[in-house]
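REVIEWER CHECKLIST
Item 1: Sequence provided? yes
Item 2: Single chain? yes
Item 3: Sequence as submitted:
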Amino acid sequence: MSKTESTIRTLPDNADPVVDYTTAAARPGTLRGDATLDIQTRQAQRLVYGRRKTDDKEHIVGLVRFGMNMKRIWTSASRDDPYADWTLLRVESALTQARDSINVLRQETEALLAGVSIGIHIDVAHSIEPVRVPLQFANAYGYMGAYLIADFDQLVRTVLTARHVGLLPGDKSAKALHNSAKLVRRAFAFSSQWKFTLVTRNDIRNNTPMALKAKEAMSMMGELPQEIVDGSARAGISPEISSAGDANNEDSNEESEVDNP
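Item 4: Structure as written out by the authors:
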């Protein structure tokens, strides 16, 4: 190739003209992967599929619906919905607190099992046929919920083992599992408080009709904190907030190239 040809030759993405056209124009396909969660206890399984609302029982948000809710919340947070951003922050905090509490309790129970008489070794009970749940989530929060379920599943196995061998009274073990499951349900339930309204931070600042409508829809969440409105407080795991001009920006949308497992 002559110097003149390489100078005037234009390739996609402003590629160096020394490469062939296919190398510059071809694009790798969407990234894919597989993820699963092995469930060994009924208590944990119930938190995966949740419970529908009936006349006498309240709706329980399970892991699957939680992941669906978080997909919508994540998308709205990227579009500058402050209520969605606030929900991400609350969910992230609740997930972290729940995991911390559950793992502390599990470690305390494991210490009971390890501290029995010399010569006795107790293995934590396990399922002979665990249920494998495929994990297909659009963002990190679904997987973070799965980590919490996995922690709870391990706690259930540990507590039930300790109860079975006489190291933990029945009432104390039941209370521990009830309170721990409640932490999981609470974290997942935050995702159902958010409602889709198309509101943005600019609406909130200017007190537009859209802002008033959103405030009414989100009344159960309370008043938006100022640090949420000004964007100074956001979840550690949150999407970039895109403006209208970013819609066609390939770099800003790079995250969307990773597909669900």
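Item 5: Key structural point noted by reviewer: DSSP finds ten helices and two strands in the chain.
Item 6: Recommendation: ____
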